[in-house]
Amino acid sequence: MATSTLPPRTRARTKPTGRAPGPAGDLRRPRRRITPMNLTLVLFVVPSVLLLLLLNAYPLGFGLNQSVRDGSLLDDGQFVGLANYTDALTSTAFWEAARFTLIFTVVGVFGSWIVGLGLALLLRTRTPARGLFKVLLLLPWVVPIVVSSTAWNWLVATPSSPVPQLFDALGWGTPLFLADPTLAAITVCIFKVWVSFPFMMMMSASALASVDPVVYEAARMDGASPRQQFTQITLPLVARSTYISWILMTIFCVNDFPTIYLLTGGGPVNATTSLVVLAYRSVFQNFETGSGVAIAFLMTAVLVAVSVVLYRQIRKVDTA
Amino acid sequence: MSASVTLPARSGAQPALARPSRAPEEKGKWWRFALLIVLTALTLIPIAVVIGLSLQPSAASTTTDPITLENFATVLTETSVLVWLRNSLVVTLATVLVSVLVAAPAGYVLSRGRGRVVSGYSLLLFVIQSLPVIVSVVPLFILFAGFGLSDSLFGITLVYVGSTIAVATWMMAAYIDSIPIALEEAAWIDGASVFGGFVRIILRNSLPGILSTAIFAFLLAWNDYLVALVFLRSELSFTLPVGVQSFVQQNMTDWGSIMAVSVIMMIPPILLFATLNRYFSVGGIGGSLAGR
């Protein structure tokens, strides 16, 4: 990728070691054999590569093999070709889960981005106790989901919970936030935004901090309104970091298991079953490892495609 | 808005005096402050609920105090919460230690090295990060079961290390990017080896990067639910997430006790963040993700 763009750094690779700063010939004629520098660098990545092979590459290969078999956790099963994939693609459960995953991801990414960016903008101005606000607003992301889902459950689950009671007092009835399919989907999405906005707030804050205030000075002198400053300076200047945060949050949302599973368990009547929850159920409740892993792979394929599109977008921003 | 305009004329030659921390707009300060208070209060309601309920006497309690630590006494004596806490601490600290030890040198290579192999390695990390945990959990569960590691803390520590490596390496690389290479070159000329330069120059100067990576690994291992749910089967090997969740399912209505174990579970990450949050930055992740 960036092979020749950073000349000063390439010196680190061709330079032998500092112990005996090589003659100029060394730099002009890069040697093929492994220099001490390269050997050390290779040793530096060995532990990481070994762990990646054992903990990521091996499971990936193993999983691909499982996805074309009809085995369970205890049994390898028979080779069934692409049956697990075609079964998944022709089942309504899969497409319903895909639909919910899409909604969950879109709301999760843009909801947490808007809230996070808004709060980052608010926190950019000087206010009393700014540091305290920053820490307090990070808490939803720091507190374990096991804990926060319990609290949300207490707040909304039954008709006698505080939030339905509040709705009742306002004359809106006592909605069943986790028992009504539509409301449960909405509640899970709001919960996800609550959990994730601090991450987006941190991403936005560090992007905003990198914008030189002089730019705003200049814009004000030219008579730009605050709205124009936001849409024409802030947003374009943080565009790159925004795309990156969208990619990361898309990955987090699609792969999310606990936020959904701990609040609703995927119910009521599968209304909040995402693809990951569906895959988990196939493997650990229906003991159909092959179909569960096939669902996860289909999902990953789409996820990687979306990431690549967004990644290209970053390149465009970079060259613009 | 007016801050830098009213600067004395002599500093007019240094517009950079308007530092990033200075507000670009100072108008409407009070409503911003009020809005912040309201939004923060709304955000914190669920967390306040946990703390509030944990301090309330249970229905069976005889105490007349409005606030009591009885729930904590109950869960500490009658449940295995202390064992779960110990298990969580062991697993989390081991994950943090191994992640940093593995990611720091790998991040160094990612930051300083250039070329096809390094780009390929970076891309590999990206692909791995996109894979859902469930894809690797099932094969690893079957593999580890063969070695008797399925219901063990060692087994889940390994899985956590595997899922932190990619991001941890990016975070270290992003931080090392900010250390000028001239420092190492000076050390090399003074006779240091590559390894010596890495230890004496890079590691010494990357405490914020290391802490950032450590906090990330801590949160991932401490808060994980899925891996622990799949791997841990016996109550004495539970970590807090599965322990607390099983306790919640067995004591559906005993909210005081439920919230007391919840408080015990959320104290360590909150303490960590309250003390070290200024070191934690996720901004670097993106830069190193898309920068090469």
From TrEMBL, chain A:
Residues 1-30 are annotated as: Disordered. Belongs to the binding-protein-dependent transport system permease family. GO terms for cellular component: plasma membrane. GO terms for biological process: transmembrane transport. It is a multi-pass membrane protein. Residues 98-310 form the ABC transmembrane type-1 domain. SUPFAM superfamilies: MetI-like. This is Sugar ABC transporter permease. The chain crosses the membrane at residues 38-58, 100-123, 135-156, 176-195, 292-311. It is found in: Cell membrane. It comes from the Bacteria. InterPro entries: MetI-like, MetI-like_sf. Keywords: Cell membrane, Membrane, Transmembrane, Transmembrane helix, Transport. It comes from Mycetocola tolaasinivorans.
Automatic annotation (TrEMBL), chain B:
The keyword Transmembrane applies. Belongs to the binding-protein-dependent transport system permease family. The chain crosses the membrane at residues 30-55, 89-111, 123-147, 153-174, 186-203, 209-232, 253-274. SUPFAM superfamilies: MetI-like. This is Carbohydrate ABC transporter permease. GO terms for cellular component: plasma membrane. InterPro entries: BP-dep_ABC_trans_perm, MetI-like, MetI-like_sf. It is found in: Cell membrane. It is a multi-pass membrane protein. The keyword Transport applies. GO terms for biological process: transmembrane transport. Gene3D superfamilies: MetI-like. Keywords: Cell membrane, Membrane, Transmembrane, Transmembrane helix, Transport. It comes from the Bacteria. Residues 85-276 form the ABC transmembrane type-1 domain. It comes from Mycetocola tolaasinivorans. Its main location: membrane.
